[in-house]
Amino acid sequence: MKKIFLTLCLTLAALNTFAGGRDSLMIGNPLLLLFDGYTYPLPGHGRGPICPPSASIDGYTLYFWDTCDFTIYIKEEEENGDEQVVYTTFVPASMTSTILPNNLFGFYIIEVVRDNQCFIGEIEL
User: FRET label pair with 66: which of 72, 83, 90, 117, CA 20 to 30 Å apart?
Assistant: First the structure.
């Protein structure tokens, strides 16, 4: 009886993990953000893994599934390899989405700063 109960509990836990995770509620296309470094050094920061924010994009709307403050930089790469910031916005923890300007077309670099952690990715608008 204990074995059946334990198997049932583990099965329910696995189904909850795979079927009801926060990524299953995403709108649009998931946004791949990679850790790009720190904006300023912090003494004594932890040695654990750094998890990028969960984000997705649908048209010109960015959705965030974490409750943190974010600063977003949209950059375009020039022919000589330099990056130029074309749009900047701040997303407070109370908001879950932000709308990007609809005059941007093409491929851009997105930089998301959370506290002192910088994450980078690519978007197509």
Answer: 83
